[in-house]
Specification:
The complex is a heterodimer of chains A (484) and B (449).
Chain A lengths: L1 H11 L5 E17 L2 E2 L2 E15 L2 E7 L4 H18 L16 E5 L11 H18 L7 E20 L4 E18 L4 E5 L12 H5 L2 H16 L7 E7 L1 H13 L4 H4 L29 E3 L22 E5 L2 E2 L6 H7 L7 E2 L8 E2 L4 E3 L6 H6 L3 E13 L5 E13 L2 E6 L3 E5 H4 L3 E4 L6 E10 L4 E9 L2 E9 L4
Parallel strand pairs in A: 5-7, 9-16
Antiparallel strand pairs in A: 1-2, 1-3, 1-6, 3-4, 6-7, 7-8, 9-23, 10-11, 10-15, 11-12, 13-14, 16-17, 17-18, 17-19, 19-23, 20-23, 21-22
Helix pairs in contact in A: 3-5
Chain B lengths: L1 H12 L7 E17 L2 E19 L2 E9 L3 H18 L38 H11 L4 E17 L4 E18 L2 E9 L4 H18 L9 E7 L1 H10 L7 H5 L6 H4 L11 E4 L18 E6 L2 E2 L6 H7 L14 E4 L9 H5 L2 E4 L1 E9 L4 E7 L3 E4 L2 E5 L4 E5 H7 L1 E12 L11 E14 L2
Parallel strand pairs in B: 7-12, 11-19
Antiparallel strand pairs in B: 1-2, 1-4, 2-3, 4-5, 5-6, 7-19, 8-9, 8-11, 9-10, 12-15, 13-14, 14-17, 15-16, 18-19
Helix pairs in contact in B: 1-2, 3-4
Classes of the chains: A alpha+beta (484), B alpha+beta (449).
């Protein structure tokens, strides 16, 4: 199929300055058991192509699922019409932009692929997890397990990228997105404990479920949700904050990843996703965080959600440090943004599918491990709190003033973990928060996580991103609880 | 596309076995998307995207598969039959779904329909996306304009082996933009509808330029505190869109996850001035689902501050024994309407007195979801007002307050005039959500950072 498409694309390649055919096909399977009942098995097959044309200083694209010769010719014509409309009306001088022309292939290894004919076994497994979660719930006098769920989505994707400059790239990935959670309520208050809608997603097969101890995770969520319902509210105050890897995910995402997107810094996202407190002149000079902070763009981390060899403009992907010893070094911008800004970036021009144009996105944005064990970090804290699992996230349009909430908190007093508290939240300002980083956990605290639901762009698109991090300790953070 | 869709489903009717039922949904669009930055074009193009979702059922076993289609009927029929065969292969191994139901009443069979909030049914205007883009570049000259133009046609269809045939098509443009002065100081605007009018666009660009002059005044930084606030309809839109995160969803209410739990369990009420409902007639979305149900034209959520109905998909209706009035598991309000109040727009600043005029809110989320406490940011042209006069633009501030204050105890007045806002979202497909909303004068809103 891929070879036939390649031949067809090359045969139809128009005589223009630049033309790319970006084909994406995706097979998605979703299974879920909620409240003890299976939802209908659903699968989706999607396939289409986006044709992008640069011609005489204008650029246009057309996306279609019609892969016939007629369909492709029609799309080429539409893309050229839009290139004509935008000629000499573009935000930047297109004639100065050079697009790459690499060849290559990427295929992630999949130990245990999803097999449709094994559907009954998958549902049996999920049913076992679900019924175990229900069985482990202990209804109290006024508290009940109001909801619980266990499921997963498997996404098998193939991408072909061909240009008239000679680019020829085939990439294949398989992603598993696990979902598990529980809701406890006493009529007045409700606690949800879950994997936050897919934090453990990885680029691998269904062996992921065993690796993350999926069933045990579900059981612990039931237990913790009930415990949290009866726990005291998180206290308010300035204190040290120890974030587990599964909240570091969100912290990195919102206040390092997004602010460093180069298209955002160049103003493209100001109507929707926003701008950034980071400006072009900061790179190479600005102390983004404490000297303990080292952050990389790493497309090669095995099985992480956004690993690949080439981005969707055909740029070869390599590991690059964005922040080293706290110093801001490199933005997240690919070929077009790099040339617009006249600075080096990374291979991060990505699209969610065939029907959206590529834009600068995060991929795998990871914090390096440090040398302190979890116990060592706890022992350093006189007055503080340990938080796990994101619940809520909000940040201003310059990516500065944020407020994040977690599902689970535990006070740290005089170097010891003490009371479990519910509804822990904290506020801060990105431009100073990372400079309050005072300890970084070692490899034993590191988790390879990510989210399949990062939204951005106009028109909008949701994409997978990876965030691997150890636990990290911050000083003097404004912490508060839920409504009393 | 309607004929293409029904030819495919007619073909499936002769392909299924006696014990089988199929349900087939179409969702699609043909859309131009033009992205602007600095008053010029950043990216421009076109997307043709049609998706068929097929459900195959025998008894209580049901499986679901979707795939893309084109305008080629034969190609689509082949794909549909292949998918049906695939689903038939896994159906015996699928678990039973106790909440699978469909409406056997064939109900309304809607023909091609155009929807427009101002005029009941109209022919398409003849202006293309290319012409709209050229107008925007022309009239935005000199402005640092950033935004997105979406223009085209959206399709929804439903057919079944029982004989259902429903179709809905709506055409619209939506130009969502912001004009920047500097840094984060900008005026937000929107021009959406069916009939593109060059003069209307020119007026909006002139209006934006005038508002930028007010934004050029020295900026005021506020301290965290409660403040008297006016929320413009576009800010209210953010709040009511946020309440679509399970607020009115039957499933969320029953599983105690709704942020409006306290309203629906009788522990709290809203202000008696608040009446909020769904009204399909004023919106752009289809009023049928993928199980054969036609939705009632009106669904009342809040009536004079008191809770009324919620939104139930086919599944929730079966699970919680209610009637179907929503499509999809999200159970969100797609054509919202809030009743107007008595405060005339021309008197808003005078009645506000001293406080904050908030044009837009941004990035709302929950501080405490079960209690209805939410947080978010001010954004774009928000101003400090003294004695009824706009004095200074403000630096962005975070608020943290309860929905039961905002639509309850702290609500002082609603404006008489309302604004129709067509959602500019486009995750997956262009949104067809819309809301008709007044502005809200609040006695107090807590700003925290």
């Amino acid at each position: 199929m891929i070879d036939n498409l390649k031949k067809r694309f090359l045969n139809l390649m128009p005589d223009v300055d630049y033309c790319s055919f970006r084909y994406v096909s995706e097979a998605r399977a979703h299974l879920m058991i909620r409240g003890g009942h299976a939802e209908p098995y659903s699968e989706s097959d999607d396939a289409g192509v986006m044709i992008t044309v640069h011609e005489d200083g204008g650029a246009g694209y057309a996306a279609t699922a019609d892969l016939s010769e007629e369909g492709l010719l029609s799309a080429i014509k539409i893309a050229r019409q839009w290139a004509d409309v935008s000629r000499n009306q573009l935000t930047f001088n297109l004639k100065e932009i050079v697009m790459p022309a690499h060849q290559g292939a990427y295929k992630a290894s999949v130990k245990k692929p999803f097999i449709r004919t094994e559907l009954a076994q998958y549902f049996d497994y999920l049913s076992d997890v679900s019924s175990s979660m229900k069985a482990s719930s202990k209804p109290g006098s006024n508290e009940t397990l109001a909801d619980w769920w266990a499921g997963f989505t498997n996404v098998d994707q193939q991408r072909l990228f061909i240009t008239n400059q000679g680019a020829d790239i085939v990439q294949q990935s398989n992603v598993v997105i696990p979902f598990v959670g529980a809701v406890y309520s006493n009529g007045l208050d409700t606690i949800t404990r879950s994997n936050s809608g897919g934090d453990h997603s990885r680029q691998q097969g269904l062996d992921l479920l065993d690796e993350i101890e999926f069933k045990q995770m579900g059981l612990s969520f039931v237990d913790e949700a009930r415990m949290l319902l009866n726990a005291p509210n998180c206290p308010e105050g300035e204190m040290d904050l120890l974030l587990d890897a599964d909240q570091m995910l969100l912290q990195i995402h919102e206040s390092i990843g997004h602010p460093l997107e180069l298209d955002r810094i160049l103003g493209d996202e100001r109507n929707y996703a926003g701008t950034s407190f980071v400006t072009l002149d900061m790179f190479g000079f600005y102390q983004y965080g404490s000297k303990l902070l080292n952050v990389s763009f790493d497309p090669g981390e095995p099985s992480q959600l956004a690993s690949y060899d080439f981005d969707d403009d055909g740029v070869k992907a390599e590991k690059v440090y964005l922040i080293k010893d706290g110093l801001l070094l490199r933005p997240l911008g690919s070929a077009i943004s790099q040339q617009r800004a006249e600075m080096a970036g990374v291979a991060n021009s990505r699209s969610c599918s065939w029907n959206r144009p590529p834009i600068d996105r995060m991929a795998n944005i990871n914090v390096d491990v440090g040398d302190e064990s979890f116990t060592q970090m706890v022992s350093k804290v006189e007055k503080g709190i340990y938080m796990r699992s994101n619940q809520s996230w909000s940040i201003d349009d310059s990516r500065n003033k944020f407020q994040f909430g977690c599902q689970w908190g535990r006070l740290i007093e005089n170097g010891k973990l003490t009371t479990i508290v519910k509804k822990p939240n904290y506020r801060g300002v990105s431009s100073s928060f990372w400079r309050s980083l005072k300890a970084v956990g070692d490899a034993s605290t590191r988790k390879i996580l990510g989210t399949p639901f990062c939204g951005k762009g106009e028109p909008n698109q949701v994409i997978t991103v990876g965030h691997a991090s150890p636990a990290c300790l911050f000083s003097d953070v404004s912490v508060f609880g839920g409504h009393s | 596309m309607k004929d293409v869709f029904f030819k495919v489903t007619d073909s499936l009717s002769s392909f299924i076995e006696e014990s089988e039922i199929f349900l087939c949904e179409l969702k699609g669009e043909t859309s131009d998307f033009v992205r602007f930055n600095k008053g010029l074009i950043r990216q421009s193009g076109h997307v043709d995207h049609y998706k068929l979702t097929l459900k195959l059922a025998t008894g209580k076993k049901v499986v679901c598969g979707s795939f893309p289609i084109t305008k080629d009927v034969d190609h689509n029929i082949a794909l549909a039959r292949k998918k049906l065969t695939d689903l038939r292969g896994v159906l015996p191994t699928a678990p039973e779904d106790p909440y699978f139901s469909l409406c056997e009443d064939l109900g309304k069979s809607i023909g091609l329909e155009y929807k427009n909030v101002d005029t009941p049914l109209k022919e398409l205007a003849g202006v293309s996306g290319e012409v709209m883009a050229k107008h925007i570049v022309d009239y935005a000259r000199g402005l640092d304009l950033v935004g997105i133009l979406a223009n085209g046609c959206q399709h929804s269809g439903f057919a079944s082996s029982l004989g259902h045939k429903k179709y809905h098509e709506s055409s619209s443009f939506n130009f969502d933009y912001a004009c920047y002065l500097k840094e984060d100081k900008a005026v937000k605007g929107s021009y959406a509808g069916i009939d593109w009018n060059e003069r209307e666009l020119e007026k909006k660009m002139t209006d934006a330029a005038q508002k930028l002059e007010v934004l050029a005044k020295p900026v005021k930084t506020l301290s965290p505190a409660p403040y008297r606030v006016y929320l413009a309809p576009s800010a209210v839109f953010e709040i009511m869109s946020f309440m679509n995160w399970g607020g009115f969803s039957k499933k969320s209410i029953e599983t105690k996850s709704s942020p409006l739990n306290l309203l629906y369990n009788g522990k709290k009420t809203m202000s008696p001035q608040v009446t909020y409902r769904q009204n399909f007639k004023s919106g752009f979305e289809a009023d049928f689902d993928g199980h054969g149900h036609d939705f009632p034209e009106i669904v009342e959520f809040i009536d004079c501050g008191k809770p009324r109905s919620s939104l139930s998909s086919s599944r929730s209706a079966a699970e919680f024994k209610t009637s179907v009035n929503a499509s999809g598991s999200g159970e969100g309000v797609g054509s919202g309407e809030m009743a107007s109040g008595q405060l005339l727009s021309k008197d808003v600043l005078k009645e506000l007195g001293t406080g904050i005029y908030i044009s837009n809110l941004w990035y709302l989320n929950f501080s405490d979801r079960p209690s209805g406490v939410m947080t978010g940011m001010t954004r774009f042209a928000c101003f400090w007002v003294e004695d009824g006069k706009l004095v200074a633009p403000i630096n962005v501030m975070r608020f943290d307050d309860s929905i039961f204050n905002v639509l309850g105890d702290q609500l002082e007045a609603l404006t008489y005039e309302r604004e129709y806002i067509l959602d500019a979202g486009s995750y997956g497909f262009r949104s067809s959500d819309s809301m008709l909303l007044p502005g809200i004068l609040l006695k107090s809103l807590k700003l925290t950072l």
